[in-house]
Design a protein that fits this description.
alpha/beta, single chain, globular, 19 helices
């Protein structure tokens, strides 16, 4: 915690004081702009971060890492940071000017969680930013808030967080929902799981390279790869020599920076995918020659899974709403050398009679609240409201109603979401079984967040 790290921080000479100085770029100013875009203007963090990292790709990796960590960390800890600021300031956070609010949030995050940066550097840079952004009259306010925090944390009156949502950085309505759905113990487990930064996972393109060859190539670049077995992939507490996924070439990576510029990525030797997102296709029982329809496919991960599991022998119709999304699917399929994926625009809410009775496998990975991926898209927790769950459930049911006639007799529906809301998961399972008596539940899994997995749900139905 911050009180334990202050002595260490102030004893170090470097650690962020001159971040960006060698390149002439003020990385804290860039972070400030990103936080305003994400937290005040409603942009998505992964899109903003990707655009900034592309623009400043020439910066040293250390400076890029600093920007990513400070931006994501501040977003993840907003409820905690605001709780502290509200205790220190007469002007409450929601009444502050956006620039001042984000300067204080990002500075407080550095003081609490980035021990390598001296406190004095954090305060000085915050004051400079306040002046440069046109608020010289508020320099004293910013300085006083941050120095009061430092004084209290190093003294006998440290700040105590005032609520469970501040301690977990999860809004109270979400905590209450999970407590209702899962009970106190599992809710605590979920919060602990979300506190982990998930492992990076990749899947080998077996049509181009063997897992062992890919492993050697990436290890030669200094990365550490661990093969994912069946128990790990499906979050099961068992070990089995026969249930290995090593032949799938699924790996967890450590020591990996950006993978997008690697020749192995550009040449389609592998693609990046969360472990949980691999589950629907793994559970579908795919075989060469099958007809697969992916209703909401972009950016194409599950369509790619299906194509690879069929050995690129079959047909995958991948639809999504916009041409932009379709282009993304096509780009990924082309990079991986997959010929069986046909990407085209389509509104999944509208029934297409031309598809009736066509699908051996119907992949329905549908729009959802995203409560299982809060650590990857941390701003979701501040945007999704409780009333949104009912609207999302209506959308999910509309899509299913429009598309279930596409499934042929003997075919399988694979329904999935990246949420852990029972309203969007198990309640929809029960609704499907009630609405379509000719469907039988063949498999089901609720994945809760842990060190390797995002929160995720899938259910397989056999017609």
């Amino acid at each position: 915690m911050a009180s334990e790290g202050n002595a260490r921080k102030n004893s170090k000479a470097g650690g962020g004081r001159n971040t960006g100085a060698n390149s002439g770029v003020n990385t804290r100013a860039i972070v400030l702009d990103m936080l305003i875009e994400i937290l005040d203007k409603g942009e998505f963090s992964h899109l903003v971060l990707n655009a900034v990292l592309m623009k400043y790709a020439y910066l040293p990796e250390r400076e890029q890492h600093f920007m990513v960590r400070l931006t994501r960390g501040t977003i993840e800890k907003v409820l905690e940071l605001d709780d502290i600021l509200n205790q220190l300031s007469k002007t409450k956070v929601n009444k502050m000017k956006p620039v001042i609010r984000e300067i204080l949030r990002m500075s407080l995050y550095q003081l609490r969680y980035m021990d390598h940066i001296p406190d004095s550097a954090v305060v000085n840079e915050a004051v400079k930013l306040t002046k440069k952004r046109g608020f010289p009259g508020l320099k004293g306010f910013v300085n006083a808030i941050l120095r009061t925090y430092i004084r209290r944390q190093t003294g006998d009156d440290p700040i105590e967080l005032s609520s469970l949502e501040a301690k977990t950085n999860i809004p109270q309505w979400i905590l209450s929902l999970w407590q209702k759905d899962y009970g106190e113990d599992l809710t605590e487990q979920i919060c602990q799981g979300l506190a982990h930064h998930p492992a990076l996972s990749i899947r080998t393109n077996l049509l181009k390279i063997s897992p062992d060859e890919l492993m050697k190539k990436l290890e030669d670049k200094g990365m550490t790869l661990t093969k994912a077995d069946q128990a790990l992939l499906f979050q099961e507490n068992k070990e089995s020599e026969t249930d290995s996924c090593s032949d799938r070439g699924i790996f967890l990576l450590e020591g990996a920076g950006s993978l997008l510029d690697l020749p192995e990525f550009q040449e389609g030797d592998f693609y990046i995918q969360d472990l949980s997102s691999m589950l629907p296709a793994e559970a579908a029982g795919l075989a060469p020659g099958m007809e697969v329809i992916d209703l909401c496919a972009a950016p194409g991960g599950k369509s790619i899974d299906a194509a690879l599991l069929m050995g690129d022998q079959g047909h995958v119709l991948s639809r999504d709403l916009t041409e932009e999304k379709v282009e993304k699917i096509e780009e990924n399929a082309e990079r991986l050398g997959l010929n069986c994926i046909q990407a085209e625009p389509g509104n999944a809410e509208i029934h297409d009679p031309a598809l009736d009775g066509k699908a051996d496998i119907l992949l329905a990975d549908l729009p959802c609240s995203g409560l299982g991926v809060l650590r990857r898209k941390p701003e979701i927790r501040y945007r999704v409201q409780e009333a949104d769950l009912s609207e999302l459930q209506k959308l999910q049911r509309q899509i299913l109603s429009a598309s279930l006639s596409y499934l042929k007799k003997g075919g399988k529906l694979v329904y999935s979401t990246c949420t852990i809301s029972k309203q969007e998961n198990q309640d929809n399972r029960d609704w499907i079984l009630k609405t379509w008596p000719d469907l039988q539940l063949a498999a089901e899994k609720q994945i809760l967040p842990d060190a390797c997995h995002d929160g995720f749900y899938y259910a397989v139905f056999l017609r």
